Amino acid sequence: MRLRDVFQPSILISEVFYPYVDKDDQLVRLVEWAAGQRFYTGVEIGAVYDAANRKTVRRVLEENGILLTSWATRDLGERNLTPSSLDAEVRRRTDERLKELLEMAAECGAVNFCLISGPDPGGGKREEAKEVFFETVCRVMERMHPYGEMNLMIEPLDRFAHKKGLIGPTDESMEFINRIRCEHPNCYFSWDSAHVALNEEKLTESIEKSAPCIGQIHLANAVLDCGSRMYGDWHMKIGEPGFLTEETGFEILNAASKAVLPGDVKHFVSVEVRGMEQDDLLEGEAGLREFLNGILERDITA
Prior knowledge:
Elements: E1 7-12, H1 13-16, H2 24-36, E2 42-45, H3 51-64, E3 67-71, H4 73-78, H5 88-108, E4 112-115, H6 123-144, E5 151-154, H7 170-183, E6 187-192, H8 193-198, H9 203-210, E7 214-223, E8 232-236, H10 246-257, E9 267-272, H11 281-296
Parallel strand pairs: 1-2, 1-9, 2-3, 3-4, 4-5, 5-6, 6-7, 7-9
Antiparallel strand pairs: 7-8
């Protein structure tokens, strides 16, 4: 059996074509273009602000049998909003914005709505912030009910290196999400290799532990030398001086394929590399597609 029999290829349009991330009309054309490649079965984008564009995205996805993941991260960040804030007014505004973003995602036909937790306030306030985030997540999930079969994805971040997220190390993340899944079983992880590596965890061990709660996987590269100016999660290209190679990607997915993955979701995998203005974006996407296809075509090994 090949890895392709377990995992579905997805494209992180909002990263691969990053210069167009805030251009609604171009975003729609990119969704249409991705559908035309006849390779991807999933696409990942941020908010689509224009109502007509949301209808177009939904139509294109339905006509091509492609599933959508909608990320709230960039929109919230640009507004200085965070779902784990200890400030009551920030929480209120975040909650209102999440309600709006969820509605936009549903109009696009999204099957996954994705969040990050926000920054870690430190040991003295960490548990309080986790409780706030827990309550926020539960409210979002309750609001999903009218939209039918929609999942919430939470992306654990690195705790100490760069993004310094509240929900980070694998053991803590599993404890948190299992608490949510007791009430809302359609909550999953978006597992990211860069964050795990920056947490100084072994990639295969983390994904094996996380597997029962994984909804999607990001293969992302990072420089792990804390003395380097490139240290951190910069959505860098594949290969050196980072750790991610085709062999590393294979080891991650091979380990995940043999673990107990949830049986009620499609398991999407995308390569998280940020295209920049000076890059040939189509050439970059072609390279990422070749990289991902090379991994998915490999046989699962014992």
